[in-house]
Amino acid sequence: MYTKKRVVAMLLAGGQGSRLYALTKNVAKPAVPYGGKYRLIDFPLSNCTNSGIDTVGVLTQYQPLVLNEYIGNGQPWDLDKMNGGVHVLPPYETQAGASWYEGTANAIYQNMRFIERYDPEYVVVLGGDHIYKMDYSKMVDFHVANDADCTISVIDVPKAEASRFGIMICDDKNQVTDFVEKPKEPKSTLASMGIYVFTWEKLRKYLIENENDANAKREKGEPWSKDFGKDIITSMLRDKQRLFAYEFEGYWKDVGTLDSLWEANMDLLSPSVPLDLYDPSWKIYSRNSNMPPQYVGDNANIENSMISEGSTIDGTVDFSILFSGVTIEAGATVNYSIIMPGTVIKSGAVVEYAIVGSDSVIEPRARVGSSPENIENRDDWGIAVVGHNVTVSAEKVVAPKQIIGENI
Amino acid sequence: MSVNYNVLGLVFASMHDAYVSELTKQRTMGSIPFGGRYRLIDFPLSNFVHSGVSEVGVITKSNYGSLLDHLGSGRDWDLARKKGGLHLLPPYSQTGGIYKGRLDALNNIWGFVEHSNAKYVIMSNCDVVTTINFNPVLKQHMENEADITLVYSRGVYDYEKNKCTTVLEFDGDNRLKDVLVDPQFSGECNIWLEMCIITKDFLKKIVSDAASRNQFSFTREILQGRRDDFKIMGYKHDGFFTKIDSIQDYYLANRMLLDPEKKNALFRKDMPVLTKIGDNGPVKYGLESSIKDSLIADGCIIEGTVINSILFRGVKVGKDSVVKDCVLLQGTKVGENCSISSVIADKNVEISNEKVLTGSETYPLYIGKGGKI
Q: Which of A311, B106, B238, B254 is the 20 to 30 A CA-CA neighbour of B285?
């Protein structure tokens, strides 16, 4: 028995996140740790719960083990439900054969049966790699008030950055008149956040159309694609459907690259960044590691940092984010860095402007990364990265910009 | 550890409430906050769960609202189960009023115990904090074919300081020889951890027998009164333990966790202490914060100095304030430019700017729940 749900959310979590290199070697991008105790997917999942959306399909494909285990039955996000709840939807085999998800639209197309069980009026499509707090129910209200077929959440970005995004051009009533992916000369600064509300009936129609069109093109040997931005939105605009832009105000960060992941973490330490993780009315939930409170020792020096439970700190920590179960030994220094769960920084080691993955060991007197002031040529500087389960042996050096995925 | 359906766990959540009357004014022993993010009942529950016990009854007495709130369905201890799971047993006495003593309490909940398929019952209080695996205790109990196996530790007892302490003596075969409650001496001895394993059929016999004689006290009637008639054995537990029997002791027990050896003995990696999840953010340390030798729980925001203290979830310490030798329970807010030392602040206490509060190591200053200073 399935009772009707007005809104169902579909969360696209299959991406590889190849620009995060060593950090997504064995982990899907939405499972990448963020902010001391979270993983990226905690944000859309918590937003769903806080917005009153209790039925969520999570589409997985790349390296799903950690992500599946993390989502589990959805209990940490209150998404363990008798009716609805969170469901992990991997690609599957049918009588016609098996196929991987061939793009974002195809992933939803292949799971139309899941959506139809709940007979929804609206489907919210989300990504799993953005940091933001958003009330999707307000966006659905906006969609309904405009009698829209599709509503795309947009954020005003600086003109100089607009060419990195999908840009929406709107009229004065927020109706979308045109959509350009990464324009060289942007005509607007409203960037798509990859968050869509569709009237399900319409989405269904366009998914089937796109699927058939793309398959026909493929048979003819023509280029084809099955993507939301490129195909579904473009087709809907072509057919003069009602598309609206919903302007979001607040903190939103895409963490597609190592630099942006580092920056998004550092943003949490800046008093001017409006992302409050301590607001009891809009908590970001996560699966808890059940560790004791953190212990800060006699030799510790901690300033302007965020540190999570189970950690033991006896060294110097400044402008850094430390996840659960991290050990910083006496005489170790961590500055402007992100240290993921279970990692040990041994005495005399220095970690600066770096991301160190989970369960890694930085042995005594090793050096990871460097402050930009110590680098003569600014182009040689960047964030140093050590992957998960990597040991950096005593006295070894990981240079700025270097990415280490194996023991050195 | 896989599940052992042969064992039923019973937690006495309200035993010895009167000894920490400040903290139990609005709660019961089991729901007293401890160690930054825990409540005392988390320790017996985690011990049970990690020993494979998945059927647990919690016997309450009074002021158990906060306990019910903490336990919920038992999900955070993996005790929301179809088979077994957590059962809350509110007070009820056939003799009228609230039950007196363990035997009376057991008599009143006997229907629950009877209904269980377990062959053995493990009983535990909440006022002794330790991490213990009950499987070796159970193994010894079965090998000995004992009626009762009492869990004890070697510890220093001081009759001027300690209260409600039961001291045990055993013969060369580990059989109970003598039981003294609050004896008039000081020194190292066998201290009962208020935990024992009892064969269920035997328990049924002594509970119904006690009821017919109008007897209530397990310690007095069984351990002291019948020790020669029954096969009562001892099991020595070697891990760290602390027994909380006064507010001063509560203060010291919390601060004992600043000793890494004791902390690691209580919070073992293979037996994590489970508790209700609060979904707080990580601890945020401000630009001029300074922290030494302290235990800090998630959700704290610290902009001042913290030395030698235990900060529970969501505590805030303002700029230029110094917190020294304190135990600040969840939600305590310390304003700017304060100096507080040797203070126990109960839940949601607010200390406004520029305040100076000083207790002493032997007599900490206690501020009641929700107090505003």
A: B254
pLDDT, tens only, A206-215? 999 999 999 8
Instruction: Confirm or reject contact between B290 and chain A (CB < 8 A).
Output: yes
Please tell me if residue B295 touches chain A, with a CB cutoff of 8 Å: yes
Taking the C-alpha atoms of residue A350 and residue A345, their distance in angstroms, rounded to an integer, is 8
Q: Of B246, B58, B24, B34, whose CA–CA distance to B130 is shortest?
A: B34
The pLDDT tens digits for B299-334 are 999 999 999 999 999 999 999 999 999 999 999 999
Surface-to-core class of residue B362, CB atoms within 10 Å of its CB (0-12 exposed, 13-18 middle, 19+ buried): exposed
Size of interface A-B (CB pairs under 8 A): 106
Q: Write down the pLDDT at residue B97.
A: 63
- Counting as low any pLDDT under 70, the low residues of chain A are 1
CB A76 within 8 Å of CB A49:
no
Output the 3-class SS for B29-57: HHHCEECCCEECCHHHHHHHHHCCCCEEE
Read off the pLDDT of residues B342-370 as tens digits, 9 standing for 90 and up: 999 999 999 999 999 999 988 899 998 88
Statement: residue B1 has pLDDT above 60 = no
Nearest residue in chain A measured CA to CA from B304: A303
How do residues B152-176 score in pLDDT, each as one tens digit?
999 998 888 888 889 999 998 899 9
Nearest to B37 among A293, A296, A300 (CB): A293
Contact: A297, B286; criterion CB under 8 Å: no
**A306 to B277: CB separation less than 8 angstroms, yes or no:** no
CATH 3.90.550.10 positions along chain B are 7-266
**Residue in A407, A363, A366 with CA at minimum distance from that of residue A389:** A407
pLDDT score at A1: 61
Which CATH number, 3.40.440.10, 3.30.160.20, 3.90.550.10, 1.10.760.10, labels domain B7-266?
Answer: 3.90.550.10
Chain A residues near residue B39 by CB distance under 8 angstroms: none
Residue of chain B whose alpha carbon sits nearest to that of A308: B282
Inter-chain touch A290–B293, beta carbons under 8 Å: no
**How far is B241 from chain A, CA to nearest CA, in Å?**
17
**Residues B284-367, CATH architecture:** 3 Solenoid (2.160)
Spatial distance between the Cα atoms of A285 and A46, rounded to a whole number of angstroms = 6
Closest by Cα among B213, B142, B221 to B179: B221
* B274: nearest Cα among B60, B75, B31: B75
- pTM (two decimals): 0.90
Which residues partner with A254 through β-bridges?
A130
CATH 2.160.10.10 in chain B, residues?
A: 284-367
- In sequence order, what DSSP letters do the residues of B126-189 get, joined into one string? SSEEE---SHHHHHHHHHHT-SEEEEEEEEEEETTT--S-EEEEE-TTSBEEEEEES-S-EEEE
pLDDT at B244 over 60: yes
DSSP code for B313: T
Does ipTM exceed 0.95?
no
Q: Which residues contact A344 (CB under 8 A, 6 or more apart)?
A: A326, A327, A329, A360, A361, A362
At residue A239, the pLDDT reads: 94
Residue appearing with tokens 């998945």: B54
Residues 6+ apart with CB under 8 A from A23: A17, A32, A258, A261, A355, A357, A385, A387, A388
What residue in A sits closest to B299 (Cα-Cα)?
Answer: A278
Q: Which are the contacts of B106, defined by CB distance < 8 A and separation ≥ 6?
A: B10, B113, B203, B207
